[in-house]
Design the sequence.
């Protein structure tokens, strides 16, 4: 048996939505991460809650890219495809590399399964034109049953273990230890159902031993650990990182954290994660609808809490009126929008960046809000923290945009020390100064234009609040035309002043050249990987990636002016490009847009950038 060393590998686990592919992929990626590999993952869920078994619509996938350096993307095409049924093969054949290995459960190649997957013949490989690949069809289901023939489990429980057989094969093929997967299984199932735990461990070992004993592979492969900065790491998804970033902001501000939300794909995990941490003083409410969710959070903000609410595009629409209330009341609130394909309910489990204009302007009246966008699973922590800091210190609601790709995806995250993060200083007032006879709720800090935060029940600081226009100082209801003009301008100026407290815009690569690639939010990994590859080839190309959307950072005009061409890449039909045209009309913007519910691939990006450079 030959052992070959590789720099990086992409594996795609795929099967029916009941086959446990998300768990299988997670266990493999965690094993790689514990070994020290750089990883990036991309779970791909079916949109239907329970599509008919064995159909293409019900295929669930999990792709992991691991290597001997940092992984910026989960990979374009896979080196190995695990297909638990013909439908999984059919759904994923387009993602195979030319010399890929296909491991297909031979037991699934029966007439019934082939018909469910839409095949017209009994030879799916021939029908799909699959030639020149390393194809293995072990009888995974049968061998799982054989391994558990004395387990005492019923047939349904036995068959559920077959994903561990596939995991065992992959761990052997890529020279990975069984230790983490075994430990996880025993921890997860051991106390409640030790028979299930023993069965899964037995099947995991059976899959590993099958690959070892049958010599099915001409080679096995090893990937060396990545040279990552020293520290303690864990694998983290964007949604979990967002929740933890909020908890960190709560700790640094001294304000209790409250989340009022309604479950919605793909944002629900943030609420679920926060609900696990009552010991940190986190309070969560699963509201009956989106409007109730944000309104409970606004109430919590009025009561002195660091308040957040989480949603996706359809829910952001429903929250729009209440966001206006937070703007006019000038209360600190963070609204997370984990973007998905639309319009309406659209593509609930697929990624998109098409909520940008809604985030900027999707409210009645002149209603400006700070808008941030995270760009990777791990930096969701930092931007959740930053969103909380801005909201509380500037007394304004903030929208934090993530998307299904980075929210569900994961990567290694160096666990930070809280001493490395700044203290958050909300402008809380608990008493009146001697020269202030009465409390004026809308008296402002001249540096930030933030009003003060008086907690209800504080003696001498009683005040009115609500959705009607406010007097510029007293906070009482005012219909005075000039006062309204003044308040509209003040609220806009307060958001604009945030630009004084965020980093100046930066560039990856040379500060001048032939082509500047512009992106925002969750496209960063693919854009950066492509630009870095082309820079290594000597191409005159740089990347300007945005995380601060409103207000835009300082320095953008100077950066744009030093490049011959600018191309704006986004997973929508050009929303950020048009936003830039509004703000910097003197530049010409090329666009590269994709609206397929999928992230970019580096292959398509490189082709586009080369086309622009060659013109």
Sequence:
């Amino acid at each position: 048996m030959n052992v070959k060393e590789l720099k990086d590998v992409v594996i795609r686990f795929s099967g029916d939505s009941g086959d446990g592919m998300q768990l299988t992929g997670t266990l493999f990626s965690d094993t790689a991460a514990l070994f020290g590999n750089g990883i990036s993952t991309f779970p791909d869920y079916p949109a239907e809650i329970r599509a008919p078994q064995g159909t293409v619509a019900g295929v669930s996938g999990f792709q992991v890219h691991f290597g001997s350096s940092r992984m910026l993307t989960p990979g374009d095409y896979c080196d190995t495809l695990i297909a638990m049924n013909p439908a999984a093969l059919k759904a994923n054949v387009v993602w195979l590399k030319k010399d890929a290995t296909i491991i297909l459960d031979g037991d699934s190649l029966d007439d019934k399964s082939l018909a469910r997957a839409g095949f017209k013949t009994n030879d799916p490989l021939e029908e799909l034109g699959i030639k020149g690949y390393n194809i293995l069809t072990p009888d995974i289901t049968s061998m799982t049953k054989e391994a558990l023939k004395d387990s005492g489990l019923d047939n349904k429980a036995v068959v559920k273990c077959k994903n561990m057989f596939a995991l065992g094969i992959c761990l052997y093929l890529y020279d990975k230890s069984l230790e983490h997967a075994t430990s996880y299984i025993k921890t997860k199932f051991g106390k409640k159902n030790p028979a299930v735990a023993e069965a899964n461990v037995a099947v995991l070992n059976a899959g590993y031993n099958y690959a070892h004993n049958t010599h099915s592979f001409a080679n096995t492969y090893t990937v060396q650990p990545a040279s990552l900065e020293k520290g303690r790491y864990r694998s983290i998804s964007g949604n979990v990182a967002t929740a933890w970033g909020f908890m960190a902001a709560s700790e640094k501000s001294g304000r209790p954290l409250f989340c009022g939300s309604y479950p919605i794909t793909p944002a629900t995990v943030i609420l679920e994660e926060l609900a696990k941490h009552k010991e940190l003083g986190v309070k969560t409410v699963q509201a009956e609808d989106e409007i109730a969710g944000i309104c409970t959070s606004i109430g919590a903000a009025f009561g002195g809490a660091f308040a957040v609410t989480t949603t996706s595009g359809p829910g952001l629409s429903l929250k729009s009126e209440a966001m206006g209330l937070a703007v006019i009341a000038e209360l600190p609130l963070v609204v997370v929008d984990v973007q998905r394909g639309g319009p309406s309910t659209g593509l609930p489990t697929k990624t998109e960046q098409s909520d940008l204009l809604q985030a900027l302007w999707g409210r009645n009246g002149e209603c400006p809000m700070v808008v941030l966008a995270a760009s990777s699973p791990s930096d969701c922590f930092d931007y959740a923290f930053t969103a909380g800091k801005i909201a509380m210190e500037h007394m304004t609601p903030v929208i934090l945009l993530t998307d299904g790709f980075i929210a569900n995806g994961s990567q290694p995250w160096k666990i930070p020390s809280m001493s490395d993060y700044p203290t958050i200083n909300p402008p809380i007032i608990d008493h009146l100064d001697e020269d202030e006879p009465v409390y004026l709720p809308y008296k402002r800090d001249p540096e930030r234009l933030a009003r003060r935060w008086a907690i209800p029940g504080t003696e001498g600081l009683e005040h009115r609040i609500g959705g009607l226009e406010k007097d510029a100082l007293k906070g009482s209801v005012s219909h005075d035309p000039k006062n309204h003009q003044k308040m509209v301008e003040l609220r806009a100026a307060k958001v604009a002043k945030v630009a004084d407290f965020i980093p100046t815009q930066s560039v990856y690569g040379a500060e001048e050249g032939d082509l500047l690639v512009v992106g925002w939010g969750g496209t960063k990994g693919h854009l950066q990987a492509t630009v870095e590859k082309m820079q290594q080839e000597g191409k005159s190309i740089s990347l300007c990636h945005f995380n601060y959307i409103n207000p835009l950072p300082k320095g953008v005009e100077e950066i744009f002016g030093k490049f011959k061409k600018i191309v704006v890449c986004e997973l929508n039909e050009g929303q950020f490009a048009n936003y830039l045209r509004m703000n910097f009309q003197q530049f010409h913007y090329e666009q590269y847009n994709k609206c397929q519910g999928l992230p970019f691939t580096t292959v398509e990006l490189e082709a586009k950038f080369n086309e622009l450079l060659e013109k």
